[in-house]
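WARN retry 2 of 3 for item q-0093 after timeout on previous attempt; input resubmitted unchanged.
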Amino acid sequence: MAEAADAAGRQAVEKQLKICGFKRNADVLVLYLGGLGLRSIPSLSLFRKLRYLWIHNNKIQDLSFLEKNYCLTELYLNNNELTDIDISGALKNLRALQILLLHNNQLKQLGETVKELKGLISLRTLNLFHNPLAYEADYRLYVIHSLPSVQLLDRKPVTQRERELAFSVFNFNKFCAVESIAFGKRVDSLPGTAIWHSRGTWPARRPMVPPGREFANHTNKVPFENPEDAVLVRAMTRSVMEFSSLDWNKIPTCQERRLKHKAEESPEKLTIQFR
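OK item q-0093 returned
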């Protein structure tokens, strides 16, 4: 059965090469293998300059044939039988990939799928709808947060509002610290508080201050190994703030001082301190 599937894949590739009139592997930039009912495709590593690949509407379950096609910019894998894309690890090396269509497959693990796609630094268009993972809570926000280069997700443009919301949901501690510093708000969660998401509990982490590196010790050393810890602790240990008020009606102006029209009085100063 497997041998027959491999033979069908080789024949499909050879047929396409003949149709397009390719004589050298280096000339192959485009391959169209869509809608052929293929279960297996032979390695395409010979086509080092391949940029556009259509494999939609087949029965593909494995992507190991893409391991060395580093020049791919568009990959159409929709309407197949993929259940996991991180088994072969083929996609994470496609740094030039800009368009990836994976809709209408059987992808279930959102976290693992997104982890595999994080290496696609040029990815602009991504389709994951009609997969089981697309029905998880906060699915769209999680993908937007994890893959910041994506501009079009599931046929809908990614908005700035969605990026801000994704940041506040999945970077909760950092978001609170930034809000506290920028707008004088109180941080509600303590460092190390675990935040629950639909993908599980994120591990608690308390900022560790190395001995002799505390704040205000007048050293040039970095106080924390992780800068985010420094920001969070600084937000939690707010400095004292002081406001003063004067009755300026009792303070003579420069002209009144010269002409001595108003007797000088000791100004009453009201000072309030708080954290």
